[in-house]
């Protein structure tokens, strides 16, 4: 039996829980399911300027930012490990936590090109004004991908 | 804490380069929050966009705060440091001694000592807010608040530019979708 590959985009948001519940009720009882939880974070910015007291201090503070990112990765893995031992014990679970180079939709599309998923689970909060500025992730993923089931939890 | 001035021209250079180098508003806003946390040695920073239909603040970018605090519930513009939406910066130097917060208990649980809230204005209208969260009671200098206001005005410009760019791209994609058969020339 071929393995069904499911991708779940995770963003530490309230609706993520709803997406996880959907994945749990839909796939947890099935054999041969591999679920990949994906989070793309914004990498720490590079400081390119002339050395000064402020930028020197800022560069030393960047290690604090790196620690915060590491903490976020640990939190992400802990959440998914908890799911893997409880709700999704029958499934193979993977996590991908990586820096983003572009918008989130493009990151999901790139990941789908690298690893062809059978289904992608996204969540979408209605009436978000930030969508005016950053665009709709679910809309771009739906418009771009072919031959992939996209589930949107709202 | 004394009202030491922490924002100077070197910090502006770093921050404005971060703004100018990114063509993605989310990445730019995230870099901005990261740089402000590092430079001002504060707990966290969030950039909000104002949803005028729901009178709510939506998180555009955030750094340093826990997901539980960020997701604590809807932030209503008339209950959460409402003075910001009169277009003026507002400083809560001690969160244990204010009635301006919508979720004061969550702020205390998060370990927030002080909050500075600066409106993001564009063309005379408030379109969002920049908020900085300190671990301790914070006596931020008037000059630093003024510098944050200049920074927030630039965030407003970047948000508006991104909005226009997105509209142009949408028009372009729509036009690209039109088959030659529909072109009458």
CATH class of chain B: Alpha Beta
Mean of pLDDT of chain A: 87
How many structural domains in the coordinates of chain B? Answer: 1
**What is the first-to-last residue Cα distance of chain B?**
71 Å
CATH third-tier fold name of chain B: Beta-Lactamase
- Helix coverage percent of residues of chain B? 40-55%
Summed up, the helix count of chain A is 5
What is the general shape of chain B?
globular
Alpha plus pi helix count of chain B? 5
Strand content of chain A: 15-25%
Described by its quaternary structure, the protein is heterodimer
State the name of the first-level CATH class of chain A.
Answer: Alpha Beta
Strand/helix succession of chain A: EHEHEHEHHE
User: Largest protein interface?
Assistant: A-B, 33 and 38 residues
Q: Which structural class fits the helix and strand makeup of chain A?
A: alpha/beta
Textual characterization of the structure:
The complex is a heterodimer of chains A (about 150) and B (about 180). Chain A has about 150 residues and is an alpha/beta fold. Chain A has a single domain (about 5-155), classed as HUPs (Rossmann fold), CATH 3.40.50.620. Helices cover about 45% and strands about 20% of the residues of chain A. Chain A has five helices and five strands, in the order βαβαβαβααβ. Chain A has helices spanning about 15-25, 55-85, 105-115, 130-135, 135-145; strands at about 5-10, 35-40, 90-100, 120-125, 150-154. Chain A has a five-stranded parallel sheet with strand order 3-2-1-4-5, with helices on both faces. In chain A, α3 packs parallel to α5 (about 135-145). Chain A is globular. The mean pLDDT of chain A is about 85. Chain B is of the alpha+beta class. Chain B has one domain (about 10-160): GAF domain (Beta-Lactamase). Helix content of chain B is about 40%, strand content about 20%. In chain B, strands 3-2-1-6-5-4 form a six-stranded antiparallel sheet. In chain B, a hairpin with a 4-residue loop joins β1 (about 45-50) and β2. Chain B starts with 8 loop residues before the first helix and ends in a 9-residue tail after the last helix. Classes of the chains: A alpha/beta (about 150), B alpha+beta (about 180). The interface of A and B includes residues 49 and 103 of A.
